[in-house]
Amino acid sequence: MKLLLPLVVLGCATGILAGVYTDRFLQQYEKIHNSANGYFSQDGIPYHSVETLMCEAPDHGHETTSEAYSYFIWLEAMHGAITGDFQTFNDAWDIMEKYMIPTHADQPTNSFYNPSSPATYAAEMDTPNDYPSPIDSSVPVGQDPIFQELTTAYGTEDIYGMHWLQDVDNVYGFGDAPGVCEGGPGTPGPSYINTFQRGPEESVWRTIPQPTCDSFKYGGTNGFLDLFTGDSNYAKQWKYTNAPDADARAIQGAYWASQWAAAAGQSSQISATLEKAAKLGDYLRYALFDKYFKQVGECFDPHSCPGGSGKNSAHYLLSWYYAWGGATDTSAGWAWRIGDGSAHFGYQNPLTAWALANEPSLKPKGATAVQDWTQSLERQLELYAYVQTAEGAFAGGVTNTWKGRYDQPPSNLTSNTFYGMVYDWEPVYHDPPSNRWYGMQGWSTDRLAQYYYVTGDVKAQATLDKWVAWLLPNLKFDGDDYQLPANLEWQGVPNAYSGGEAQENSNLHVTITDFTNDVGTAAGTARTLAYYAAKTGNTEAKDAAKKLLDGMWNLYQTDKGVSSPEVREDYNRFTEPVYVPSGWTGTYPNGDTIQSGITFIDIRSFLKEDPDWPKVEAYINGGSAPEFTYHRFWAQSDVALAQGAYGLLFDE
């Protein structure tokens, strides 16, 4: 087995670790960084995709996500491993910190936050048509047990975490630039925005984009607030939402940078950045707690389920989000914070949990942070075992708040809970189901495989053995052509969980419904197999990883990267109705009207000016579904990282 450490070639003028797959990394890296290819804004911010007409979670290609920033950081860490120069890793972190972590001016009233009363309850509803959801102060909430130790450790009440979504070119025109609240279309620099706000059936096609700082300049009488929550009085406010898997991925990249830099004798070059990564991990603990800090376990009624105290509100899993907000008025302020009671297996990152608990350069300053991440690591490993199907794939996750409002779950789920939380095959969102996409398997299992590679943990190996045994027969190769799972369906429920290393879920099953040649999911899968093979010596896994990497490289080269064409049948939803309550009216900065009866494209009229719009319009008018060759930043980075990881592991 070859150690995954940079061996900088002495006497080489470039200092590059040479090899077939590390050279591929550098070729792909250069394509990503070629300014003519359009991956970055003029400020060095990675776009979600090169192409602008793009709708999936972001609804425009030149938005960006915390996911893209995290891949940027990891990409630059590996660049340091291969070249011996880690300055671009520092630079990537600095760009992320400057643009995606709200400054004090962006979150000015955290000093008013009361950890004994973190937020007022509002139920999540079933469909967007059920909103706004009334705020209900009669529902008990718990106490925030980490606020004071974070304030003590860092000397500020502000949160150090990424907001998840950014309008890099300010296309919507809100102008929520760093330190600016609703500056308008002319505000330079990226603009914070949000979309999802209205329950599990609110796909991106049903969203109403909104500013993160709402001063009532746009929207309706109360800005956008009364579309989402029902209240007797609305105040101008700021609010941010964190995607924990992205912050965890950024820390994961920092962990590898710490190891690679140490091997290259460059630890001092990145020490300050590693301190920031540790700080990010300290605040990431908000993702380990129930949404309203209620007790975890058997929480099946919002009024009778008590608020938590101490750490009994912690489920210790990486949940779907945490969020925080407050008033814009610094003279009469208030602030709130929430976690999330639902956790998807696909968001877990045992390597990050292990690094925050064990890597000296990444240990957070919070008094109980190491203890919390140690506990989180164990709980994450148990979650993989709890939701692993009889075949080996991972089925969804668990929730402490059924239907997002602490409802009574079906009886077939309450007899087999996971630390009192119930199984959910599609945590958080249902359109499409959150665990239908196979990519969640590769993403999360890759992190598990990296953790296993670093630690040799036999519990992780047992879980990986079963997953790899399911996957390998379902990879199809014909020369360079490859196919891997695209979408999955689930049947049954897990068996009762009693703790321990693994369990046999004889009543929980997976079915593969279709296959794909997608390069992003193929890259994540190949990297998973490579780490697994490097630790176990499994030649079949190594060979499959190589075939995936060679196939995508040989078949799907483009001028801008490595990408396979895709047909977007879902683009008929550009004309899907977006629910707005009867009588509610408002406007966007460009003049688009928000009112009952609008469609997705009605409130995004700028998309009609996109050069790719005609082929979408032709499809809407009865033509064939349009085909695109997209260059998503995460997928193009994944291609580079998978090629590079294989090279660092196996290149001679």
From TrEMBL:
* UniProt GO MF annotations: cellulase activity
Where is the secretion signal located?
1-18
Q: Name one GO biological process term.
A: cellulose catabolic process
Pfam hit, one: Glyco_hydro_48
- InterPro entries of this UniProt entry? 6-hairpin_glycosidase_sf, 6hp_glycosidase-like_sf, Endo-1-4-beta-glucanase_dom2, Endoglucanase_F_dom3, Glyco_hydro_48F
Family matches, as Gene3D superfamilies: 1.50.10.10, Endo-1,4-beta-glucanase f. Domain 2 (2.170.160.10), Endo-1,4-beta-glucanase f. Domain 3 (4.10.870.10)
Record keywords, A-Z:
Carbohydrate metabolism, Cellulose degradation, Glycosidase, Hydrolase, Polysaccharide degradation, Signal
**Do you know which SUPFAM superfamilies this protein is assigned to?**
Six-hairpin glycosidases
| Top-level division of the source organism's lineage | Eukaryota
This protein's name? Glycoside hydrolase family protein 48
